[in-house]
Structures are given as C-alpha cells and as structure tokens.
Amino acid sequence: MISPTDLPDIIPVFPLPGALLLPRSRLPLHLFEPRYLAMLDDVLKTSNRLIGMVQPYEGPDATDRLHVIGCAGKLTAFSETEDGRYMVTLSGASRFRILEEVEGFTPYRRCKVSWDGFSRDLGATEKDPDFDRDTFMDALGRFLSDKGLSTDWESLSEADDELLINSLSMLCPFDPEDKQALLEAPSLATRRETLLTLIEFALRGGNSEETMQ
Q1: Domain match, 114 and 148 both
Q2: Alpha-carbon distance 180 to 71, whole Å?
Q3: Whether 182 contacts 20, CB under 8 Å
Q4: Strand pairing of 50-54 and 10-15?
Q5: How far is residue 211's CA from residue 172's CA, in Å, rounded to a whole number?
Q6: 62/65 Cα distance (integer angstroms)
Q7: What is the pLDDT of residue 3?
C-alpha cells in the first residue's frame, strides 16, 4: 500500500492519549475539532494521505510534549456527518521518529520525521513462531472477565498472530505509557511478551506506574 518513496519528511500529527495505531492495522477516528477538520482537508490534497498518530504527555514544565516514536496511517476511508464531523479510518503504514516540530501557520501540529529503522513495517505480515496461543488466550480471558469486557472469541481464535496481537494491543484498556511501550516493541514477539506482561500485571492488581518502573 505504501512504499518508502511515498514517505514524506514532514507529516501532520494527531496527538491522542491512549489511541494506538500499528503497522498493517486499522484505527477508526471521530474528528470534530476545527483544527483536525482542517488537517483532514489538507491531508486529502496530498498524494500519500498520511497522518501521524502520537502519544502526548505532560513535560516537567507542564508543557504538552510528544513521544518521539509514533505511527503514520494512510487515510483509507472517511464519511461526513450532517453536522460537519468526519468518521475516518487510518490504515497503519509505518512507525516514525520525530526529529523536530515544524512551526507554521496550520492550526494543527506538524513534525519533521525519520522513517529509518522501521523498514519492516512496510513489509509482509510478521510471524511469531514461539507464540503459545493457549497460555495467552487463557490469560486474556481472565483479564477481560476481570475488566467486565466481552469479545468475539471465534474471531480471535481464527485471527493470525499479528492481527490478534496488534488488535489487542490497540483495543485493551491500558494507560498511554503502556500503549507507547507496545508501539515501540521492535518485533511482534516482543510486543506479544509486553502485552502478556501488562495483562498479567493487571490481573495481579498492579498499576501502570509500577509497570513502567
């Protein structure tokens, strides 16, 4: 869908706490703030139609900062409501590293980024040969029950490794810093290990601050 030559040096970024996008995954978004409606209008005029999803955090000086690593998604679907809002879908293309924020006259934030080190994101579906699905699904079932959540177990059982792990990483109710750890995992196996650690820690009654120490 995206080749390395399609990746621009500067992209618009959408800082949204807890919203995780991963390569080859899809993220639905509801846009209604004027600055992000303006961003959408501008993105539709580009050939790549990329938007960077990034986790914001509060710096020590109480300023709004951005995590260095985010994931860009290609706008693949959108519809407009009668009151001018948009329902859009981003298809994960590649992670990136923020080099610097770009000053300008747009109401939304833009960043100069590097795609180096994330070439695997543009490749084929990743495998996880050491994945113990039975153990993982048992822990997941206990986690969802503990949180009072339900799921389509038939669809989960039929999903391939990457779809299963990435979808759960995006959907499970973890804190933004935990979501960032899942994003930065260098491989699918590492992401699965991180996800299982977060699930098991939650089952023991831990919190995200302890998890990240």
Answers
A1: no
A2: 10
A3: yes
A4: parallel
A5: 15
A6: 9
A7: 79
140 lies in the same domain as 90: no
Rounded CA gap, 125 and 122, in Å? 9
CA atoms of 10 and 110, how far apart (whole Å):
7
Rg (alpha carbons) of the chain, rounded to whole number:
18
Structural domain containing residue 113:
4-122
Q: In a 10 Å sphere around its CB, with 0-12 CB exposed, 13-18 middle and 19+ buried, how is residue 122 labelled?
A: middle
Running along the chain, 213 residues long, what does each successive block of 10 average in pLDDT? 85 95 95 93 94 91 88 94 89 97 94 95 92 92 87 82 94 93 96 96 68 33
CA pair distance 193, 87, nearest whole angstrom: 33
Task: Tell whether 15 is covered by a domain.
Answer: yes
Which of 110, 115, 171 lies closest to 140 in space, CA to CA? 171
pLDDT for res 213: 30
Number of domains in the chain: 2
